[in-house]
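seq as requested:
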Amino acid sequence: MPKYIFEVINETAKMSKKEDKIRVLREHQSWALKDILRGTYEAKLEWNLPKGEPPYEACEPHNCPANLIRENKKFKYFVKGIKESDNLPGFKRERVFLGMLESVHPEDAKLLIGMINKNKIKGITEAVIEEAFPGLIKK
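struct tokens:
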């Protein structure tokens, strides 16, 4: 079974050598991981959601009905400038986001909130991401 995205992020952040960080990211690459990294670090990518900490009920870590590997397909509803996001009323967009937060592992939910708020991930730099996944982050 693939690791949760937060597990890959934590493992990568703990590594001291850049080569090790790149290796871990590549070994566990998925669209969900790349989307989280891109959504967090790409300055031009804007989220169509309010900044801050949304009110949500985190699910129990041992009983999460969903995971980011599948849920990341819904990101298109949150990005400014994408038809699916721009055509969706704000309250529905926020409800979809809250549903995602409440259904994924609580640590992955924290990653999602950090992504929306553009909070850089401690221990992972843009240079590491660029080497692991060239061209992922658009300048």
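DSSP finds eight helices and no strands in the chain.
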